[in-house]
Design goal:
The complex is a heterodimer of chains A (about 450) and B (about 270). With about 450 residues, chain A is of the alpha/beta class. Chain A has 20 helices and 16 strands. Chain A folds into two domains: about 190 residues, Periplasmic binding protein-like II (D-Maltodextrin-Binding Protein, domain 2, 3-Layer(aba) Sandwich), CATH 3.40.190; about 200 residues, D-Maltodextrin-Binding Protein, domain 2 (3-Layer(aba) Sandwich), CATH 3.40.190.10. In chain A, about 50% of the residues lie in helices and about 15% in strands. In chain A, strands 1, 2, 3, 4, 7, 14, 15 and 16 form an eight-stranded mixed sheet that branches. Chain A has a four-stranded mixed sheet with strand order 9-12-8-13. Chain B has 13 helices and no strands. In chain B, helix 1 crosses helix 13. The chains are: A alpha/beta (about 450), B mainly alpha (about 270). Chains A and B meet through helix 1, strand 3, helix 3, helix 11 and helix 12 of A and helix 3, helix 5, helix 6, helix 9 and helix 11 of B.
């Protein structure tokens, strides 16, 4: 027994020591990063994508990598995928060390947070005007923080509406509602027929309600120089009034209080809710998870006035400030976001829009076909004309979203009157802006 | 009398079946979901109409789960013996040797259990970077090789050994190191097995550190692969995620079933007064 233990202990110690040595030998040299004497890009450059692992993306990025390396034979490109929820934390942590990625795929919210901490390279003077002008204006502006360009827009999703065509047929409804009163009437008619709550207002972490409020305001500012000015906005009070009424009458599912798009997706997939607003990607899991519901799914414009602005969700590419290969990193970011590659990416993904004007002119978007996904794509490309990032990145973003979610849910559950809820929300937003001393307007 | 006993048992069994359904139910639903074919609706029925392993094949083929599985296995297999070695080496003096500042050392070690990982992950990342441990299996193992919990658990186990056994070994001429591995270690085998299970579970399911320390997907572990699948940009394929979850869970389940008698006896070790 003693000998056996002796062997185990000795063996484990030897293993530990040899692994320590192996680790020491594994030390990587610093990444080469420069341009050669001829001006050609050299060295290594690493790009991180967010939650785009597996096929068909692996093949797309392999080919993209080869194309870029063919253009710059002395450059070695590495593309890695990171789970999106942890992207911000991973980029920030990597910035504390020396091994930083050179190009990262961020949403505008993560981008502004990292830029505010000095973590991103200012691209304003590094990108040509021609490149800047190639992008659709709204998405392009989402890469600007405090008047500096920190990111180039890549792919987009705009808000559209999704509905279960069978449920609408059962209730004899031919048109999508465009006002909150119409939404109430439609929801009531469908619920009377199906017996299930039919309208699902997506809350997420509060951001979707904030965007909805800006859309409903339709041009009237919600916040002026850091002061909330929507306290007496009739459209917003009506929205709070009708959603509360619908929740009380069982036209909105109880699960809405949790409010994620994923929950809405599950309810829609199970045929337990009939219409909601979301991006084109909404149908992804429904196609494989509930083929019958997928076939019955139809897309339309967002559930508001045709002139109202709609939100565009942008994914972009930024360059960390600590990159050791600035020129190559910027060149790669420009290459990935050029019109040709954006179009190819949109075709690969099947549910997103490109951020370049030229790509949107392609027949792929003008005549997308008859499948539910294709119809969603058509609606999204049509709504892109009035799409922009409705809530600009602010330091108070987290507080605004949290208070909006809490107060909207309290209003749904009838714990506040709609007027009280809007007033309280306005006051919470003011507190947040006072704290950060921001003079934003949107 | 018999009827009363029968009734009591009936209630007991009903309660146990109810608790079992609640506990095992979600796992079974996930298992059934993972066996559904591509063209079958996930809400059509709980049981798959024509069970298939295609989701498992897809997880291995297209979502790189084979590689993630291997990485996780390598890291776990290295981490467990190292954790047992270092924790028992650190715990023994804390339990059995008198030296100045022993209680302070113990307090410092235990207090590290209260510091959230998020607080020290950035310096740890820098340290791993400067030691060349990024994107290496060793870099992933290093977090698990010695844990405050493991040291505490082993210390409590060593405290229970009668001192007479060690004293007789000293009389036979053994030195402290020999007493540790010839006398003390064999007597705390159940606790070693318990610690092995805890280390297995901690390493197998670890997410944040492997994610931070790996900038190459070839070093990703199962938990990162699972996150990639569930956060996929166009929503998620629930059948594929279910298959991946089952693949991730089965080893933990098997280990637990195999070693559960040690797990339960060892888990109470920490409760013994020191």
């Amino acid at each position: 027994m003693g000998k056996q233990i002796n062997k185990v202990v000795t063996g484990t110690l030897v293993a530990a020591l040899s692994m320590g040595l192996m680790a020491g030998c594994n030390k990587e040299g610093a990444k080469d990063a420069s341009t050669s004497k001829s001006g050609e890009l050299t060295g290594e450059v690493t790009l991180w994508t967010a939650s785009l692992a597996g096929e068909p993306f692996d093949t797309y990025f392999d080919e993209l990598e080869k194309k870029f390396e063919k253009l710059h034979p002395d450059l070695d490109v590495t593309i890695e995928d990171i789970p999106q929820n942890e992207m911000e934390q991973k980029v920030l942590t990597s910035l504390t060390g020396n091994d930083v990625p050179d190009v990262v795929n961020l949403n505008p919210h993560y981008m502004s947070n990292i830029a505010a901490q000095g973590g991103l390279l200012d691209l304003t003077g590094m990108v040509s005007d021609k490149t800047k002008n190639s992008f659709v204006e709204g998405p392009y502006k989402s890469g600007i923080y405090e008047d500096k360009l920190y990111a180039l827009p890549w792919y987009l999703t705009t808000t559209i509406s999704w509905y279960n065509g069978d449920h609408f047929d059962q209730a004899g409804i031919k048109e999508l509602p465009t006002t909150i009163k119409d939404i109430y009437d439609t929801a009531k008619a469908i619920t009377d027929k199906t017996g299930k709550p039919s309208y699902y207002p997506v809350i997420n972490d509060g951001n979707t309600i904030m965007e909805k409020m800006v859309s409903l305001s339709n041009g009237k500012p919600m916040v002026k120089d850091g002061k909330a000015v929507f306290e007496s906005n009739k459209d917003i009070i009506d929205y709070f009034t009708y959603t509360q009424k619908m929740y009380k009458e069982g036209l909105i599912p109880q699960e809405t209080a949790e409010g994620s798009l994923k929950t809405g997706q599950e309810l829609f997939m199970a045929g337990n809710t009939s219409f909601l607003e979301g991006g084109v990607t909404f149908l992804g899991p429904i196609e494989s998870g509930a083929p019958d519901v997928y076939k019955a799914s139809k897309a339309g414009q967002p559930l508001e006035s045709e002139s109202a602005p709609v939100n565009v969700a942008v994914m972009n590419f930024a360059v960390p400030a600590k990159t050791k290969n600035k020129e190559a990193a910027v060149a790669l970011a420009e290459f990935v976001t050029n019109a040709e590659n954006q179009l190819e990416f949109s075709k690969t993904a099947g549910t997103v829009l490109p951020a370049t004007k030229n790509s949107l002119e392609d027949d792929y978007f003008k005549n997308p076909g008859e499948s539910p996904k294709a119809l969603g794509m058509l609606q999204a490309s049509e709504s892109l004309e009035r799409a922009k990032v409705l809530i600009p990145p602010t330091e108070s973003s987290a507080e605004l979203r949290e208070s909006t979610k809490n107060i909207f849910v309290k209003n749904l559950q009838g714990k506040l009157t709609p007027e009280e809820a809007v007033k309280q929300l306005s006051s919470e937003w003011n507190k947040a802006f006072e704290k950060s001393d921001e003079k934003v307007t949107f | 009398m018999k009827s009363k006993q029968f009734n009591q048992r009936m209630w007991l069994y009903t309660l146990m079946i109810f608790i079992t359904i609640i506990t095992v139910g979600p796992f079974l639903i996930t298992l059934f979901m993972s066996l559904k074919a591509a063209n079958e609706g996930i809400y059509s029925s709980i049981l798959p109409a024509s069970p298939t392993l295609e989701n498992f094949v897809t997880a291995f083929d297209k979502a790189n789960f084979g590689m993630y599985f291997l990485n996780t296995l390598v890291v776990t297999v290295i981490a467990i013996p190292l954790n047992l070695l270092f924790c028992s080496l650190a715990a023994y003096p804390l339990a059995r040797m008198d030296f100045r500042g022993r209680s302070v050392v113990l307090a410092v070690i235990i207090s590290t259990m209260m510091v959230p990982f998020q607080l020290y992950m950035a310096p740890l990342f820098q340290l791993a970077g400067s030691l060349g441990l990024q994107n290496t299996h060793i870099g992933l193992v290093v977090m698990q090789v010695s844990t405050a919990f493991g040291i505490f658990l082993m210390r409590q186990a060593f405290l229970r050994i009668p001192k007479e056994l060690e004293e007789s070994a000293y009389l036979d001429g053994a030195n402290k190191f020999k007493v540790w591995y010839l006398v003390a270690l064999p007597l705390v085998k159940p606790t070693l097995v318990t610690l092995a299970i805890f280390t297995f579970m901690g390493t197998w399911g670890d997410y944040l550190w492997p994610l931070l320390n790996s900038t190459e997907s070839s070093m990703y572990t199962l938990s990162i692969g699972l996150a990639q699948l569930s956060q996929n940009f166009d929503g998620s394929n629930l059948k594929l995620i279910s298959a991946a979850s089952i693949l991730t869970t089965i080893p933990t389940l098997l280990i637990f079933i195999w070693l559960q008698k040690y797990f339960i006896s060892g888990a109470t070790d920490g409760a013994v007064k020191g």
